[in-house]
Structure formats: structure tokens, C-alpha cells
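Form 12-C: Joint structure prediction
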Amino acid sequence: GDQVEQSPSALSLHEGTGSALRCNFTTTMRAVQWFRKNSRGSLINLFYLASGTKENGRLKSAFDSKERYSTLHIRDAQLEDSGTYFCAAWTGGYKVVFGSGTRLLVSP
Amino acid sequence: DMKVTQMPRYLIKRMGENVLLECGQDMSHETMYWYRQDPGLGLQLIYISYDVDSNSEGDIPKGYRVSRKKREHFSLILDSAKTNQTSVYFCASSNRDRGGNTLYFGEGSRLIVV
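Section 2 - Result
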């Protein structure tokens, strides 16, 4: 079936540094969305992309449907960026498949 | 203010009891979803609703049923809760915008079945 492989499963960053999260898809996806689950357990919308790249502050996301991947770049990480990040891919119609999440810990 | 609201946020039930999780959205979205999230498994789709009284099973519907009598409300019902239904449940809604969809999530409902 349709699957999403998200990596890494866990990531530790020092404040001010950056890294990238990645989701690989086993099939062509129509769009991708990135979320952050905060300390209260709420899912926060970060990006929705049907193609190309989007940037918002210190976050930047890219989606390549043909190459079957999406990335989320974090630069100048801050303590409040800690949380679990999920990608979700739209397979077509209303079906969405989720990655298993990346636990990010930003330390001083 | 675009919002998806879930009630209750926390719930403890005994095995065999009935559970009702409620979800509301103020965006007039046609489509609503119920997911559960367990460690290491991401979010799994339980049911999807395309509109009032138009519901469809997701990937893990067994042990659950849903009700959508008004567009803004979508309920998840467990008629006889089991311990393996202990989880965090997320409701979401979506619209169709410029050929795509964006999911809006509620804050989650943590259910513990003992």
C-alpha cells in the first residue's frame, strides 16, 4: 500500500544549528503537508505543498512529486522548535498517509 | 477564526464502557476525519466523512463507529471500549483549495481504557 518513510526518527540539535527532515514516498503523491506536535499534544500546520518550495521564517519545505520525496529544513534552531514533526502525503482524493514522525530536541 | 475543537481532551474509561468523542469545526468544511496516534505509528485513519451522513471506513475502523448529523460536527463512538483502544485521537477537517486540500487538526483527545 501507499507508504511514507520519514527520517530521521529522532534528531538532537543545539540552538542556532540546523538540519533537514525527509519523507520518501513509495508512490506518486499529490501533495504533502508538514505538522509539528507541540508539548501540549496539538498538531500545528506548518506547510502544505502541491509542488515546489515554501519558506516561513526559519523553516523551508520542498516537495518533488516525481522524485517522490519531501523535505523540511530547519535553520537557526530554537528551544521552542522542539517537538515531533510529521509529514502527511495526499495520495489522491481525500486519503492522507502519515510518516511516523521525527522527534526533535533542541538544547542550549 | 479557523478552528477544530475536540471534547473531551482527556478521558478515562473502564473496559466495556461506551465512549463518545466529539469534534466540531467552524470552517464549513465538507470533509472530516478521525485518526488515532500511537507511538511509532504516526496517525492512522479510522473514519472519513465526506458530508452529513456520508461516512467511509478508513484503515482501522474495527471497534469504532461515527456519526455526522451536521456538517460542523463529527462524533467517534466506541460502543464497548477495549484496552487496546487507549490512544490519542485526533479529529481533522479539510477543504478543497486551489485543487488541493489542507488538513486542520483538533488538539487531540487522550483516551485511557483500564
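Section 3 - Comments
The two ends of chain B are 37 Å apart (CA to CA). The mean pLDDT of chain B is 90.
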